[in-house]
Amino acid sequence: MPMYQEVQSVCFVGSGAMGSFNALVAGAAGLNCSVYDSSQTALASLPDRLRATGEHLRQRGFFSSDDLSRALDRIASTTDLAAAIAGATLVSESVPEQPDIKRAVLAELDGLCGEHVIITTNTSTLLPSELEGALSKPQRFAALHSHLGARVFDIVGGSSTDPQLLAQLEAYVRRLGGYPLLLTKENPGYVINSILGPLLTASLTLLAEQGMSAESIDRAWMRSQSVPIGPVGLMDLFGLDVIFDSWQRPGRNNHPLRPRILAQLSPRIENNALGIKSGRGFYSYPDPSYAQAEFLAAASDKTIENCLIAVFLTQALALAANEIAEACKVDEAWTLSFGSPHGPFAQLQALGIPALKKYQDEARCRGLLDGDVLSLVSDYLATTAPPI
Fold first, then answer.
1. Taking the model in full, what pTM does it have?
2. CATH fit for domain 9-182, picks 3.40.50.720, 3.40.190.10, 3.30.930.10, 3.40.1390.30
3. Counting C-beta atoms within 10 Å of the first and last residue's C-beta, which end of the chain has fewer, N or C?
4. Three-state DSSP state, 330
Protein backbone atom coordinates (compact mmCIF):
# COMPACT_ATOMS: atom_id res chain seq x y z
CA MET A 1 0.00 0.00 0.00
CA PRO A 2 1.46 3.42 -0.95
CA MET A 3 2.85 5.66 1.77
CA TYR A 4 2.05 9.31 1.16
CA GLN A 5 4.66 11.85 2.17
CA GLU A 6 3.94 14.90 4.30
CA VAL A 7 2.90 17.66 1.94
CA GLN A 8 5.72 20.15 1.40
CA SER A 9 5.11 21.42 -2.12
CA VAL A 10 1.80 21.86 -3.90
CA CYS A 11 0.86 22.31 -7.55
CA PHE A 12 -2.40 24.11 -8.26
CA VAL A 13 -3.84 23.38 -11.69
CA GLY A 14 -5.98 26.30 -12.78
CA SER A 15 -5.23 29.94 -11.98
CA GLY A 16 -8.79 31.16 -11.41
CA ALA A 17 -10.35 32.33 -8.16
CA MET A 18 -10.06 29.00 -6.33
CA GLY A 19 -6.57 28.13 -7.57
CA SER A 20 -5.35 31.58 -6.60
CA PHE A 21 -6.96 31.43 -3.16
CA ASN A 22 -5.60 27.96 -2.41
CA ALA A 23 -2.09 28.97 -3.49
CA LEU A 24 -2.24 31.99 -1.18
CA VAL A 25 -3.31 29.86 1.79
CA ALA A 26 -0.61 27.25 1.16
CA GLY A 27 2.06 29.87 0.56
CA ALA A 28 1.15 31.70 3.77
CA ALA A 29 1.60 28.37 5.62
CA GLY A 30 5.18 28.15 4.35
CA LEU A 31 4.66 25.70 1.48
CA ASN A 32 6.23 26.12 -1.94
CA CYS A 33 3.54 26.46 -4.60
CA SER A 34 3.35 26.31 -8.36
CA VAL A 35 0.32 27.43 -10.33
CA TYR A 36 -0.26 25.91 -13.76
CA ASP A 37 -2.57 27.21 -16.45
CA SER A 38 -2.62 26.39 -20.15
CA SER A 39 -3.41 30.03 -20.91
CA GLN A 40 -0.49 32.43 -20.95
CA THR A 41 -3.00 35.27 -20.81
CA ALA A 42 -4.48 33.88 -17.59
CA LEU A 43 -1.03 33.53 -16.03
CA ALA A 44 -0.07 37.05 -17.09
CA SER A 45 -2.91 38.38 -14.96
CA LEU A 46 -2.22 35.99 -12.06
CA PRO A 47 0.03 38.36 -10.05
CA ASP A 48 -2.65 41.05 -10.07
CA ARG A 49 -5.32 38.49 -9.19
CA LEU A 50 -3.23 37.14 -6.32
CA ARG A 51 -2.62 40.62 -4.93
CA ALA A 52 -6.27 41.64 -5.30
CA THR A 53 -7.58 38.45 -3.67
CA GLY A 54 -4.93 38.60 -0.97
CA GLU A 55 -5.65 42.24 -0.19
CA HIS A 56 -9.39 41.55 0.02
CA LEU A 57 -8.70 38.71 2.46
CA ARG A 58 -6.25 40.83 4.44
CA GLN A 59 -8.88 43.53 4.87
CA ARG A 60 -11.28 40.87 6.18
CA GLY A 61 -8.68 39.69 8.70
CA PHE A 62 -7.94 36.39 6.96
CA PHE A 63 -4.27 37.27 6.36
CA SER A 64 -1.82 39.60 8.06
CA SER A 65 0.38 41.75 5.82
CA ASP A 66 3.31 39.44 6.61
CA ASP A 67 1.23 36.35 5.73
CA LEU A 68 0.33 37.88 2.38
CA SER A 69 3.90 38.90 1.60
CA ARG A 70 5.19 35.42 2.50
CA ALA A 71 2.53 33.78 0.35
CA LEU A 72 3.28 35.89 -2.71
CA ASP A 73 7.00 35.11 -2.42
CA ARG A 74 6.35 31.36 -2.49
CA ILE A 75 4.11 31.17 -5.57
CA ALA A 76 5.54 30.46 -9.04
CA SER A 77 3.58 29.99 -12.25
CA THR A 78 4.08 28.20 -15.56
CA THR A 79 2.29 26.91 -18.66
CA ASP A 80 4.41 23.73 -18.54
CA LEU A 81 2.44 21.11 -16.59
CA ALA A 82 5.36 18.71 -16.18
CA ALA A 83 7.48 21.52 -14.74
CA ALA A 84 4.63 22.63 -12.47
CA ILE A 85 4.23 19.22 -10.82
CA ALA A 86 7.97 18.52 -10.49
CA GLY A 87 8.67 17.97 -6.79
CA ALA A 88 5.03 18.39 -5.76
CA THR A 89 3.65 15.97 -3.17
CA LEU A 90 0.08 17.20 -3.67
CA VAL A 91 -1.67 18.36 -6.84
CA SER A 92 -4.93 20.29 -6.57
CA GLU A 93 -7.11 20.63 -9.67
CA SER A 94 -9.33 23.71 -9.94
CA VAL A 95 -10.25 23.85 -13.64
CA PRO A 96 -13.79 24.83 -14.77
CA GLU A 97 -16.72 22.85 -13.35
CA GLN A 98 -17.24 20.83 -16.50
CA PRO A 99 -16.88 17.03 -16.14
CA ASP A 100 -15.18 16.41 -19.48
CA ILE A 101 -12.56 19.11 -18.84
CA LYS A 102 -11.88 17.83 -15.34
CA ARG A 103 -11.55 14.20 -16.47
CA ALA A 104 -9.14 15.15 -19.23
CA VAL A 105 -6.95 17.12 -16.82
CA LEU A 106 -7.04 14.38 -14.17
CA ALA A 107 -6.07 11.74 -16.74
CA GLU A 108 -3.09 13.86 -17.79
CA LEU A 109 -2.04 14.34 -14.17
CA ASP A 110 -2.39 10.61 -13.52
CA GLY A 111 0.13 9.92 -16.29
CA LEU A 112 2.61 12.59 -15.17
CA CYS A 113 2.58 12.23 -11.38
CA GLY A 114 4.60 9.64 -9.48
CA GLU A 115 2.55 6.97 -7.72
CA HIS A 116 2.96 8.55 -4.26
CA VAL A 117 1.73 12.00 -5.36
CA ILE A 118 -1.74 12.83 -4.04
CA ILE A 119 -4.15 14.11 -6.70
CA THR A 120 -7.18 16.09 -5.56
CA THR A 121 -10.08 17.93 -7.11
CA ASN A 122 -11.40 21.19 -5.73
CA THR A 123 -14.78 20.70 -7.40
CA SER A 124 -17.75 22.22 -5.64
CA THR A 125 -20.47 20.48 -7.67
CA LEU A 126 -19.14 17.07 -8.75
CA LEU A 127 -18.48 13.94 -6.70
CA PRO A 128 -15.16 12.05 -6.62
CA SER A 129 -16.90 8.93 -7.94
CA GLU A 130 -17.94 10.91 -11.03
CA LEU A 131 -14.32 11.74 -11.82
CA GLU A 132 -12.17 8.89 -10.47
CA GLY A 133 -12.58 6.79 -13.62
CA ALA A 134 -10.17 9.14 -15.37
CA LEU A 135 -7.30 7.87 -13.21
CA SER A 136 -5.51 4.53 -13.46
CA LYS A 137 -4.74 4.78 -9.72
CA PRO A 138 -7.96 6.13 -8.17
CA GLN A 139 -6.76 5.14 -4.70
CA ARG A 140 -4.58 8.28 -4.64
CA PHE A 141 -7.48 10.57 -5.54
CA ALA A 142 -10.01 12.48 -3.41
CA ALA A 143 -11.96 15.71 -3.29
CA LEU A 144 -10.26 18.42 -1.24
CA HIS A 145 -12.70 21.27 -1.56
CA SER A 146 -11.88 24.66 -0.08
CA HIS A 147 -14.24 27.52 0.62
CA LEU A 148 -13.13 30.87 -0.73
CA GLY A 149 -12.39 33.21 2.15
CA ALA A 150 -12.60 30.48 4.83
CA ARG A 151 -10.35 27.83 6.34
CA VAL A 152 -12.83 24.97 6.08
CA PHE A 153 -11.94 22.12 3.73
CA ASP A 154 -14.27 19.28 2.73
CA ILE A 155 -12.40 15.99 2.41
CA VAL A 156 -14.33 13.35 0.49
CA GLY A 157 -13.04 10.03 -0.77
CA GLY A 158 -14.28 8.21 -3.83
CA SER A 159 -15.07 4.50 -4.05
CA SER A 160 -11.38 3.49 -4.09
CA THR A 161 -9.65 6.21 -2.07
CA ASP A 162 -6.86 4.97 0.24
CA PRO A 163 -7.65 5.79 3.92
CA GLN A 164 -3.98 6.76 4.38
CA LEU A 165 -4.48 9.46 1.80
CA LEU A 166 -7.46 10.87 3.67
CA ALA A 167 -5.42 10.99 6.87
CA GLN A 168 -2.62 12.82 5.06
CA LEU A 169 -5.11 15.35 3.69
CA GLU A 170 -6.43 15.98 7.20
CA ALA A 171 -2.86 16.66 8.35
CA TYR A 172 -2.31 18.99 5.38
CA VAL A 173 -5.43 21.01 6.19
CA ARG A 174 -4.35 21.37 9.80
CA ARG A 175 -0.94 22.60 8.64
CA LEU A 176 -2.78 25.30 6.69
CA GLY A 177 -4.49 26.31 9.92
CA GLY A 178 -7.72 24.93 8.53
CA TYR A 179 -10.64 22.81 9.69
CA PRO A 180 -10.78 19.39 7.95
CA LEU A 181 -14.39 18.32 7.47
CA LEU A 182 -14.14 14.62 6.59
CA LEU A 183 -17.38 13.18 5.23
CA THR A 184 -18.29 9.57 5.87
CA LYS A 185 -19.91 9.32 2.43
CA GLU A 186 -20.35 11.34 -0.71
CA ASN A 187 -23.07 13.96 -0.84
CA PRO A 188 -23.85 16.42 -3.64
CA GLY A 189 -22.44 19.75 -2.49
CA TYR A 190 -20.68 18.00 0.42
CA VAL A 191 -21.75 19.88 3.58
CA ILE A 192 -21.33 23.63 3.22
CA ASN A 193 -22.26 23.81 -0.45
CA SER A 194 -25.28 21.55 0.01
CA ILE A 195 -26.61 24.37 2.21
CA LEU A 196 -25.04 27.32 0.41
CA GLY A 197 -25.96 26.19 -3.12
CA PRO A 198 -29.72 26.30 -2.51
CA LEU A 199 -29.27 29.58 -0.64
CA LEU A 200 -27.57 31.07 -3.73
CA THR A 201 -30.28 29.58 -5.96
CA ALA A 202 -32.94 31.15 -3.76
CA SER A 203 -31.16 34.50 -4.07
CA LEU A 204 -30.96 34.19 -7.85
CA THR A 205 -34.65 33.28 -7.89
CA LEU A 206 -35.52 36.36 -5.85
CA LEU A 207 -33.51 38.45 -8.30
CA ALA A 208 -34.97 36.87 -11.42
CA GLU A 209 -38.54 36.02 -10.48
CA GLN A 210 -39.44 38.27 -7.55
CA GLY A 211 -37.69 41.44 -8.74
CA MET A 212 -35.69 41.87 -5.57
CA SER A 213 -32.42 43.79 -5.63
CA ALA A 214 -28.99 42.40 -4.79
CA GLU A 215 -28.75 44.95 -2.00
CA SER A 216 -32.09 43.99 -0.40
CA ILE A 217 -31.21 40.29 -0.46
CA ASP A 218 -27.76 40.78 1.00
CA ARG A 219 -28.94 43.28 3.61
CA ALA A 220 -31.60 40.86 4.86
CA TRP A 221 -29.11 38.02 5.17
CA MET A 222 -26.30 40.11 6.68
CA ARG A 223 -28.59 41.54 9.36
CA SER A 224 -30.15 38.20 10.27
CA GLN A 225 -26.81 36.35 10.42
CA SER A 226 -24.48 39.11 11.66
CA VAL A 227 -22.08 38.47 8.78
CA PRO A 228 -20.09 40.87 6.57
CA ILE A 229 -21.28 39.57 3.20
CA GLY A 230 -24.52 38.24 1.75
CA PRO A 231 -25.30 35.54 -0.82
CA VAL A 232 -25.14 37.84 -3.83
CA GLY A 233 -21.83 39.28 -2.65
CA LEU A 234 -20.60 35.71 -2.19
CA MET A 235 -21.41 34.96 -5.82
CA ASP A 236 -19.22 37.91 -6.82
CA LEU A 237 -16.50 36.52 -4.56
CA PHE A 238 -16.69 33.02 -6.06
CA GLY A 239 -16.85 34.33 -9.63
CA LEU A 240 -20.06 34.68 -11.65
CA ASP A 241 -18.51 32.54 -14.38
CA VAL A 242 -18.25 29.69 -11.85
CA ILE A 243 -21.91 30.17 -10.91
CA PHE A 244 -22.86 30.34 -14.59
CA ASP A 245 -20.97 27.11 -15.39
CA SER A 246 -22.79 25.30 -12.59
CA TRP A 247 -26.12 26.27 -14.18
CA GLN A 248 -24.97 24.88 -17.52
CA ARG A 249 -24.69 21.35 -16.14
CA PRO A 250 -27.29 18.81 -17.40
CA GLY A 251 -28.59 18.27 -13.88
CA ARG A 252 -29.95 21.83 -13.91
CA ASN A 253 -31.84 21.45 -17.20
CA ASN A 254 -35.18 20.77 -15.54
CA HIS A 255 -35.02 23.59 -13.02
CA PRO A 256 -38.10 25.72 -13.84
CA LEU A 257 -36.26 29.02 -13.40
CA ARG A 258 -33.07 28.03 -15.22
CA PRO A 259 -33.76 30.28 -18.27
CA ARG A 260 -34.48 33.30 -16.06
CA ILE A 261 -31.43 32.70 -13.89
CA LEU A 262 -29.15 32.29 -16.90
CA ALA A 263 -30.64 35.49 -18.29
CA GLN A 264 -29.53 37.22 -15.07
CA LEU A 265 -25.99 35.93 -15.42
CA SER A 266 -25.35 35.87 -19.18
CA PRO A 267 -25.02 39.66 -19.75
CA ARG A 268 -22.50 39.90 -16.93
CA ILE A 269 -20.46 37.01 -18.33
CA GLU A 270 -20.50 38.56 -21.80
CA ASN A 271 -19.33 41.90 -20.40
CA ASN A 272 -16.60 40.37 -18.21
CA ALA A 273 -18.47 41.45 -15.09
CA LEU A 274 -17.38 38.33 -13.22
CA GLY A 275 -17.23 39.71 -9.69
CA ILE A 276 -14.26 40.62 -7.56
CA LYS A 277 -11.70 39.13 -9.96
CA SER A 278 -12.77 41.45 -12.79
CA GLY A 279 -13.61 44.48 -10.63
CA ARG A 280 -17.36 44.34 -11.14
CA GLY A 281 -20.25 41.89 -10.97
CA PHE A 282 -23.47 42.52 -9.09
CA TYR A 283 -21.37 45.09 -7.19
CA SER A 284 -18.36 47.27 -8.10
CA TYR A 285 -14.97 46.64 -6.50
CA PRO A 286 -12.76 47.27 -4.56
CA ASP A 287 -15.40 49.19 -2.56
CA PRO A 288 -18.74 47.36 -2.89
CA SER A 289 -21.76 49.01 -1.34
CA TYR A 290 -22.32 46.10 1.06
CA ALA A 291 -18.96 46.88 2.71
CA GLN A 292 -19.95 50.47 3.50
CA ALA A 293 -20.93 51.40 7.04
CA GLU A 294 -24.30 52.81 5.98
CA PHE A 295 -25.38 49.65 4.10
CA LEU A 296 -27.01 48.02 7.11
CA ALA A 297 -28.56 51.26 8.33
CA ALA A 298 -31.47 50.87 5.91
CA ALA A 299 -34.39 48.66 6.92
CA SER A 300 -34.27 45.09 5.69
CA ASP A 301 -37.09 43.14 4.06
CA LYS A 302 -38.48 40.66 6.61
CA THR A 303 -40.03 38.49 3.91
CA ILE A 304 -36.66 38.00 2.23
CA GLU A 305 -35.06 37.28 5.60
CA ASN A 306 -37.67 34.65 6.53
CA CYS A 307 -37.46 32.94 3.14
CA LEU A 308 -33.67 32.73 3.18
CA ILE A 309 -33.68 31.37 6.74
CA ALA A 310 -36.23 28.73 5.69
CA VAL A 311 -33.99 27.54 2.86
CA PHE A 312 -30.92 27.62 5.11
CA LEU A 313 -32.40 25.57 7.94
CA THR A 314 -34.26 23.14 5.67
CA GLN A 315 -31.05 22.22 3.83
CA ALA A 316 -29.20 21.71 7.11
CA LEU A 317 -31.96 19.40 8.32
CA ALA A 318 -31.66 17.42 5.08
CA LEU A 319 -28.02 16.69 6.01
CA ALA A 320 -29.18 15.29 9.35
CA ALA A 321 -31.96 13.28 7.70
CA ASN A 322 -29.45 11.71 5.28
CA GLU A 323 -26.84 11.15 8.03
CA ILE A 324 -24.14 13.03 6.14
CA ALA A 325 -22.56 14.84 9.10
CA GLU A 326 -23.19 15.45 12.78
CA ALA A 327 -25.09 18.61 13.69
CA CYS A 328 -22.23 19.93 15.82
CA LYS A 329 -19.77 19.54 12.93
CA VAL A 330 -22.14 21.26 10.52
CA ASP A 331 -22.51 24.18 12.92
CA GLU A 332 -18.77 24.45 13.52
CA ALA A 333 -17.95 24.30 9.82
CA TRP A 334 -20.59 26.91 9.00
CA THR A 335 -19.46 29.40 11.64
CA LEU A 336 -15.82 29.00 10.58
CA SER A 337 -16.73 29.42 6.92
CA PHE A 338 -18.83 32.55 7.20
CA GLY A 339 -18.11 34.16 10.56
CA SER A 340 -21.70 33.76 11.68
CA PRO A 341 -22.00 33.54 15.48
CA HIS A 342 -24.30 30.51 15.24
CA GLY A 343 -24.64 27.57 12.85
CA PRO A 344 -27.95 26.37 11.42
CA PHE A 345 -28.82 23.88 14.16
CA ALA A 346 -28.16 26.40 16.93
CA GLN A 347 -30.37 28.86 15.05
CA LEU A 348 -33.07 26.22 14.66
CA GLN A 349 -33.05 25.66 18.41
CA ALA A 350 -33.55 29.38 19.01
CA LEU A 351 -36.24 29.73 16.32
CA GLY A 352 -38.27 26.61 17.03
CA ILE A 353 -39.98 24.18 14.68
CA PRO A 354 -43.37 26.02 14.50
CA ALA A 355 -41.68 29.23 13.32
CA LEU A 356 -39.57 27.27 10.83
CA LYS A 357 -42.70 25.74 9.31
CA LYS A 358 -44.23 29.21 8.94
CA TYR A 359 -41.09 30.42 7.18
CA GLN A 360 -41.13 27.32 4.98
CA ASP A 361 -44.67 28.17 3.87
CA GLU A 362 -43.50 31.65 2.81
CA ALA A 363 -40.53 30.23 0.92
CA ARG A 364 -42.58 27.51 -0.77
CA CYS A 365 -45.10 30.07 -2.05
CA ARG A 366 -42.23 31.91 -3.74
CA GLY A 367 -40.80 28.75 -5.31
CA LEU A 368 -37.66 28.80 -3.16
CA LEU A 369 -37.84 25.31 -1.63
CA ASP A 370 -37.34 22.06 -3.49
CA GLY A 371 -40.38 19.85 -2.94
CA ASP A 372 -38.40 16.63 -2.51
CA VAL A 373 -36.11 18.17 0.12
CA LEU A 374 -39.06 19.70 1.94
CA SER A 375 -40.84 16.31 2.01
CA LEU A 376 -37.68 14.61 3.29
CA VAL A 377 -37.31 17.12 6.10
CA SER A 378 -41.02 17.05 6.95
CA ASP A 379 -40.93 13.26 7.28
CA TYR A 380 -37.74 13.49 9.33
CA LEU A 381 -39.24 16.03 11.76
CA ALA A 382 -42.39 13.93 12.06
CA THR A 383 -40.48 10.83 13.18
CA THR A 384 -37.25 12.08 14.77
CA ALA A 385 -36.32 14.73 17.30
CA PRO A 386 -34.13 17.22 15.42
CA PRO A 387 -30.48 17.31 16.53
CA ILE A 388 -30.70 20.58 18.45
1. 0.77
2. 3.40.50.720
3. N
4. helix
